Amino acid sequence: MSSEKLNLTELEKKALKLIIEAGKDGLLQQDLWKKLNIDSRDGSRIALRLAKKKLIHRELVTVKGRKTYRLTALVDKVPEEEESEEKKEVKYEKRIPRSIKLDVKVRMGLVAKIPCTSCPHANRCGPGNFFDPATCTKLGQWLEKAVKALERKSAKRATRV
């Protein structure tokens, strides 16, 4: 990576420093622009530039019903500016974005029957999107069948006792 790609503005340096200080849990993009005392558009642009330079990772999250990004640093410190105009490699340690650990047991037979697994719109589906699980007729019908099956099972158990 050349030094030209890592020329950071003072605001970008401040933003990166705040993100690094936030640690492995990162910093919400909305909190970043508030701390920098700038508007959301400028905050978003700064975060995008830092992500493009591979200094931070942006993860889409929903907080209190609003979509925002969690920003986590991929470096330990703000890269120093190069004094010479020659292209030099900037040395810094990259961090892997934090992973989410789930301890859930799932029966794969049930998962395979969910209509979402074969839906052509699954990659564009999400809350608030054009394709939304809350309004999906196929998913709704599948859930109704699953509920009726559970009700039948519980009714059979109740009659046995």
Provide structural commentary.
The protein has five helices and three strands. The protein has helices at 10-21, 29-35, 40-52, 108-113, 137-160; strands at residues 27-28, 56-63, 66-73. A hairpin with a 2-residue loop joins β2 (56-63) and β3 (66-73). It is elongated and about 75 Å long. The termini are far apart. Pfam families: B-block_TFIIIC (PF04182). Residues 10-71 form the B-block binding subunit of TFIIIC domain. It comes from Ignicoccus hospitalis (strain KIN4/I / DSM 18386 / JCM 14125). InterPro entries: TFIIIC_Bblock-bd (IPR007309), WH-like_DNA-bd_sf (IPR036388), WH_DNA-bd_sf (IPR036390).
- Strand arrangement in the largest pleated sheet: 1-3-2
* Shape category: elongated
CATH topology grouping of the largest domain: Arc Repressor Mutant, subunit A
Distance between the termini: 71 Å
Order of helices and strands: HEHHEEHH
Radius of gyration using CA atoms only: 23 Å
Helical content stands at 25-40%
Name the poorly predicted regions. 82-86
- Looking at the overall shape, the CATH architecture of the largest domain is Orthogonal Bundle
Beta-strand content estimate: 5-15%
CATH class of the largest domain equals Mainly Alpha
CATH superfamily of the largest domain: Winged helix-like DNA-binding domain superfamily/Winged helix DNA-binding domain
Structural class: alpha+beta
Number of spatially distinct domains = 2
Largest β sheet strand count, sense and barrel closure:
3 strands, antiparallel
- How many helical stretches? 5
Domain B-block binding subunit of TFIIIC: 10-71
Pfam family, one: B-block_TFIIIC
InterPro entries: TFIIIC_Bblock-bd, WH-like_DNA-bd_sf, WH_DNA-bd_sf
Protein name: B-block binding subunit of TFIIIC domain-containing protein
